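ok so i was messing around last nite and threw this chain in just to see what happens. nothing serious, just curious
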Amino acid sequence: MEFSGGWDSKAVLVDGRWVERRPRRPSSAELLRREASLMPWLAPRLPLPVPVPEIIGADPLVVRHEFVPGEPLDESGEASASIGHRLGLFLRALHEAPADEAVRHGLQPAGEARREHGELIGRFRTEVVPLLPADRRPTASAFLETASDPPFDTVVHGDLGPEHVLADGGAPTGVIDFGDAHAGDRAIDLAWALNGTAPPFARAVAAAYGPSDGDRARALVWHRLGPWHEVLHGIDTGTPAYVRSGLDGVLDRLADGHPAA
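result:
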């Protein structure tokens, strides 16, 4: 059975037990290789199940891991506070993993992640800002300045949203898709959890995790930055629907300056 593997990989369920993943593009292959190197070291440190892929084919690249059961959380953010509490504990454990050791096991290092982030901010300025209404461009450009220099010192998932948190019967069953893991800003993993969910869920995450005021502020910046990536994905893949949806999200979140929970 084939199911969505995200923007970077295709995924197929084999024999009801194994998930086999292949890169959608040559540039995505390195993400899968790094995930296969990192996760056997990282998984035992985490309080929820995660995929632990192994490489079973090199050319073309194929990785396989045991199926993590459960359904993605509702995108409305109405998941229970108990799931939020467990997710907060999970993130705290993830972020306490030693970054230097994680890099030795395959995590994308800080210098590389910082360079890629700078390149993305540059593309946002040159490719996304011009697509916005003229009267919103100054605000958008000023916002990008606030997003240009986050810390890069923590093991992060890097793409945590409702589609990557699985649950069943009101309890979390796992966190998936670590292809974007890197040494980065812990607040990126709090962006959706604190700003894109219902207040009881967000409060439960915060109570279990214990974010600082700085973490909260940067999490809101990362949350507002999310749709900018969708615009670029639409541009890169020639998908106008992603561009339109992303631009709508950019404008909505620029206008939404609410604080984190």
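not much to say yet. The chain has nine helices and ten strands.
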